[in-house]
Amino acid sequence: MDDPLIIADREYTSRLITGTGGAANLSVLERALVASGTELTTVSLRRVDTEGGTGVLEILRRLGIDPLPNTAGCRTAAEAVLTAKLAREALGTNWIKLEVIADDRTLLPDPLELLDAAQTLVADGFVVLPYTNDDPVLALRLEEAGCAAVMPLGSPIGTGLGIRNQHNIELIVARAGVPVILDAGIGTASDATLAMELGCSAVLLATAVTRAADPEKMATAMRAAVTAGRLARSAGRIPQRFWAQASSPPR
Amino acid sequence: MRIQVNGARREVADSATVAEVLDALGMPAAGIAVALDGEVVPRAAHAATPVAEGAVLEVLTAVQGG
Q1: B37 contact A CB<8A
Q2: pLDDT tens across A75-125, in order?
Q3: Is residue B34, in this structure, part of any structural domain at all?
Q4: For this UniProt entry, which segments traverse the membrane (chain B) (predicted)?
């Protein structure tokens, strides 16, 4: 393994974490997951009789992809903690993508409830990956609380607006001692590349792939985009200049 | 007795256990989690946990999302 992504006690080859939400059906989802090369993918927890069975888990088992349950839809720390415990019970994993949402229009994280839930879950032995605002101070607080990664948004969930505050992402990366995973807002491949160029350790996306006109093709693009951004980051880009600088030798 | 399962009213045998309720409703054996009145009931405790009249049972599984 050349340049693995290390989160808590696990190593992954792929730096692209895909979500399963938004796919038209399970066969579209399966093809997109395979094309993305992902090894870790999010799932949600819902009532058994509302969504029709455990098909998504069977796909993940078959493909050898680790499930990362989320607490999507939770509004308070208490709700998120209960959902995380249920996810641990249902899926047999202590990994949790922690989401505590403030309202339905923005789906932005509620920072106070988020930190509260993170502290409780870390104390209970969970590996906590919090979906957070692009707030460098909150990111540090979450790391201090014992989170295994921090996952700042580029822009609100499902908007495809890309990374609205590049400098904040760079500030988070500059001070983080845990992996920074750009989560939410990715619209197309260049957004994913930019996240990696800014120094993120991985990208988490769902809608950009599952709701693309051709999800399998977009998943292939995202896989290449994340790899390209990672390589460019480690290659060390040239400084930006105001005036031109010839690349051919003077005669 | 009457209980609530995933938001719907259900009639189950008096002094039924969590395991018996799940079985009676044809819930999948694996990949689910149960909360009884807001508390997680671990799988190992399903058979020994009684359900009381008016109890609220939530049975959850993983679906596409996130």
Answers
A1: no
A2: 999 999 999 999 999 999 999 999 999 999 999 999 999 999 999 999 999
A3: yes
A4: none
**pLDDT tens column, B1-24:** 999 999 889 888 888 999 999 888
Closest chain B residue by Cα to residue A93: B31
| Shortest distance, CA A240 to any CA of chain B (angstroms) | 37
Residues of A in contact with B63 (CB under 8 A): 43-46, 51, 56
Q: What totals of helices (H) and strands (E) does chain A contain, helices first?
A: 10, 10
Q: Which CATH number is A5-235 given? A: 3.20.20.70
Other CB atoms within a 10 A radius of the CB of residue A137 amount to 12
What's this model's pTM, rounded to 2 decimal places? 0.90
Q: Which of A15, A88, A97, A230 is catalytic?
A: A97
Cα separation of A178 and B31, whole Å?
Answer: 30
Active site residue A85: no
Q: Hey, of A48, A204, A205, A207, which one would you mutate to test binding to chain B, going by the most B CBs within 10 A of its CB?
A: A48
- The verdict on residue B11 lying in a domain is yes
Residue A176 in this model has a pLDDT that exceeds 80: yes
For residue B29, being part of any structural domain is answered with yes
Identify the bridge partners of residue A180 per DSSP, sorted by sequence position: A150
The whole domain housing B43 covers: 2-61
What is the CATH classification number for the domain harbouring B54? 3.10.20.30
Which letter, b or e, does each residue of A167-191 get, where b requires 16 or more Cβ atoms within 10 Å of its Cβ? ebbbbbbeebebbbbbbbbbbebeb
Query: What's the pLDDT band for A1 if we cut at 50, 70, 90?
Result: very low
